[in-house]
Amino acid sequence: MATDFLTGPATELRVLRPDDFDPWYDTLIRAFGGVPESVEERELWNALTEFDRSLGVWEGDACVGTAGAFTFRVTVPGGASVPAAGVTMVGVAATHRRRGVLTSMMRRQLDDVRSWGEPLAVLTASEPVIYGRFGYAAATFSLSAEIDTSRVRLSVPAGADDVRLRYAAPADVLDMCEDVYARLVPLRPGMLARQPGWERVGLLDPESERDGASPLQCVVAERGGEVAGYARFRVKLGWGETGHNGTVILDDLAALDPATEGALWRFLFGVDLTTTLTVRGRPVDDVWQHQVSDIRRCRTRSRDSLYVRLVDVGAALEARTYQAPVDVVFEVEDDFCPWNAGRWRLSGDAKGATCSRTSDAADLALSVRELGAAYLGGVSLGALGAAGRVREVRAGALAEAAVGFGGAVAPWLPHGF
Question: Nearest CA to 93 among 111, 69, 112, 67?
Fold first, then answer.
């Protein structure tokens, strides 16, 4: 589609050129408050930016809008790795709000994603209210916690005592940690297969963002002489009238088996001179919740994480499997990407699926947003139906589809982009 929503004099939307990066990036930083990033961060994002997949809106020599799309593959139910455009670096100059800048970038970007043959677009939203009108919906959620490790005890699985833990400089064991991460990617929907260079993002450690905590530390876990897990974290010491009250701040943890994971969590619970373990951005079904002695003293909470947009309904629904047989006709509404609108018959099970256009009567009616929310198995179609977001046309169709779309584990986005 070639619709141009821009208004105003001499405004141009174009693909980003390498020599445009600095003013383009400055516009983005200003849109997010204007706090400059470190030279290291700027250089890394310059290296990771895919210029031919990035857009800028210019008024004369001034950049007034930014948007990019990283090349990712995201795990979907069944373990397949599906191409997805990782929408990123979206910003509009405050001087140019409500002039069609964002809408024009989203229009061009989704047209491009379709032309690239990528059935999904995904993003993390600074303001969730913005992206619903472009067909995105929250599909994964993340867990945060403030665990009182002075009062809460942890019971770990058998075999944890056989795991050897050792400190290591994060950069020195980066390849080993990336290997552990890569082996976990197919096991949980929502996880991203990282492109070369992305491993460096996990090592960014600007002092300005530590809030008094230590530099990034790393402990690796070994079983049978091989690295089977790792934890990256910081420690922020504190002292009160009754003694120490420091905090461990977990940055990243991954493990290949329950014993290794238990050993790493036990280590974090027991770091000297600390009484709190701060956990952010973890899976909502993270295992430690079933190993603690008092979940109330862990102060858990969840929030939206990965937003999913089906760019090609048929290809996206065919790419995943379904935990129970499903045969359903969806009447899909999609005003922003009208090529998706209409009726689709989905037939699938745990072995695979087909999804194609049909003239058969609809069983369920919904918008592309509800399909995106339910796509990874973390949001129930049944719950969306109860909220009035999915309309059941054929009695019983909603329950059947809801079971099929569910998953054995919660989907999870392990890091932002």
Answer: 67
In angstroms, rounded to a whole number, what is the distance separating the alpha carbons of residues 381 and 370?
8
Catalytic residue status for 141 = no
C-alpha to C-alpha distances, 372 to 140, 227, 263, nearest whole angstrom: 10, 36, 36
- Above 50 in pLDDT, residue 101? yes
Q: Which tokens go with 411? A: 């989907």
Express each pLDDT in 370-394 by its tens digit: 999 999 999 999 999 999 999 999 9
Q: Quote the CA–CA distance of 204 and 348 in Å, as a whole number.
A: 42
Structure tokens at 128: 């969730």
**Annotated active-site residue in 25, 70, 131, 230:** 131
Q: What are phi and psi of 126, to 5 degrees?
A: -70, -35
Residue 109 CA: distances (Å) to CA of 149, 342, 377: 46, 22, 26
Active site residue 131: yes
User: Residues 182, 193: contact at Cβ < 8 Å?
Assistant: yes
Report the first-to-last Cα separation within the chain, whole angstroms: 27
- Look at the block and give the residue holding tokens 């976990």: 184
